Amino acid sequence: MTESPRDEDEPMPLAALARLLPGKPAYTTVRRWASDGRTSQSGKLVRLETVRLTNGLGSSIAKYKAFLAALQE
To answer: How far apart are CA 69 and CA 73, in angstroms?
Structure first.
């Protein structure tokens, strides 16, 4: 994962989060993870946790890591 000067728990807009993630997924991909989710290896639906920001939805690096961990279950 790309190192960033931000605190991992600091919420940021989904577009900014997408730019920091490995592989640089498109904003729409990150938004889809938050709205539609992905199916984990065990078949459970997992969504990227988001928070409401003044300019739309946001998430954090820590929430992204939790999302990845949940997908591995």
So the answer is: 7
In this predicted model, what pLDDT tens digit does every residue of 12-50 receive, in sequence order? 999 999 999 999 999 999 999 999 999 999 999 999 999
Q: What is the phi/psi pair of residue 58, to 5°?
A: -140, 165
- Minimal CA–CA distance to 63: which of 16, 20, 5, 8? 8
State the Cα–Cα distance between residues 15 and 43, nearest whole angstrom.
Answer: 28
CA nearest to 55, candidates 20, 27, 14 = 14
pTM: 0.87
Q: Which of 1, 4, 35, 29 is nearest to 15 (CA)?
A: 29
CA angle 27, 38, 22 (to 5 degrees): 45
